Amino acid sequence: MQYDSPITNTEFQTFLTTSSISDDTAAAISTLLNLDSADTINLASWDGVNAPEIPTGQEGAADVVIVNVPGAATDLVPVEIPDSLNSAKAFIFDSNASLAVTFDAPVAAESASLARVAADTTAGIEFLVTTGAGNDVITVNGDQNSYIDAGNGNDTIVTGNGNNTVVAGAGNNNVTTGTGNDTIILSGTGHTDIVNTGAGYDVVQLDGSAADYTITAGNSNNVTLTGAQTAAITGAEFLTFADGSSVALAQSEAEASALRLYEGILGRDADQGGAQNFIAQVEAGTALTDIANSFLNSAEFGGAATEASIDSLYTSLLGRGADTAGSDSWEAIIANGGSLADVAAGIAGSAEAQEQDQSNGTFVDSLYLNALGRPSDEAGHDAWVAQLFNGASRAEVAAGIVGSAEAAEKINSDFIDALYLSATGRASDEAGKAGWTEVLANGGTQADVAIGIVGSQEAIAHNDNVVVLHGAV
């Protein structure tokens, strides 16, 4: 870059684009320096020894410092930040030398939202450091939210107590963070990282999939991951992987019981925000039954079940699958207190249904198959057809079959089957299903059944996305 005049936004953006800085780190720099709105950037260049240089005509202290310290990776070069650069928000070390740098009093940046935003590591950043390919020792003290990209090399990174993001490159790295909610990003293969995240709700992200690693709990609230890379992690609460899979690290069996409901009820790994929320509920004393009901009453769980039921009614009554607009409309009715029987009546009474060339007997048989999961029996078939012959509407018959006690029993049966499959990885056995069906028949709730199946020893052994940390229980 040329320094004979103030640096424009465009010039600095071009520098970021053409440099070796990663896209994520470049985005973090852009957010921190408000590059979307700034016309010029207050910049300084420095060699780590002589006085920093600033562009001719630049007014104000430097917000970003580009540092090029001579040397090779075998050279450990102590770097002392001069007072004139203490207010800078970002330091870009473009150097192959191994650097030892301590930042004691980074700038208190303009107030932005300081809350950590899941899936956006650039949120709330107040200070940023990115280094080169050396074996660096980077210490950033203070309570500000820092973003540190250590580049490649065998790096040691220590942060203060803000909500920090540390990007550890393709080397054997040692990362220690403070009491904030930190995000540690480990990448590459064939190396070993050591991470100690301290207090706070901390997330470690790794390459690949959770299935690529063997995860072993140690005896000091730590886990070791072995696979394409090895990581010894202490103090973290959540592991994410590049493919979107995750592993929640529970501090107690109570936390684990809540977090296993993700797989048991929703059939998926926990998401970071949800896991953090339910852990907070456990710590606040919320009963597991209440947490289970939160899952069962969620739009994700209830919506999927309702959508499937509506689609089945469309198939029975209209001979086609539900369209998005129609399904959404009926789901809204149920969400506002309507029943599936109301939906069945509405669809059966629609103009489209009246146009179906379907005999009364075929109409009843189709409802039996889709609402009750079995062919119609002769007595039931004849009774419903007789009602239609004597003046009952198809809407009334549809509501009667869908709202019957047998239909409710099928819903319970399907619920138990789904729990067995997601929680244990197998179909329900006859004895087990009969036992849980009896629980529901005797006044037990779906939450009771979910807690029982998901909390069984078989389900716990099957679950591989929740790990209880030894030393915390």
Automatic annotation (TrEMBL):
Species per Swiss-Prot/TrEMBL record:
Pseudomonas putida
GO MF assignments: calcium ion binding
The alphabetical list of record keywords is: Calcium
Answer yes or no on keyword Calcium: yes
* UniProt-listed Gene3D superfamilies: 2.160.20.160, Phycobilisome linker domain
| InterPro entries for this protein | DUF4214, Hemolysn_Ca-bd, PBS_linker_sf, Serralysin-like_metalloprot_C
Q: What is this protein called?
A: Antifreeze protein
Q: Where does the DUF4214 domain start and stop, copy by copy?
A: 292-355, 356-410, 411-462
Superkingdom, taxonomy of origin:
Bacteria
- Which Pfam families does the UniProt entry name for this protein? DUF4214 (PF13946), HemolysinCabind (PF00353)
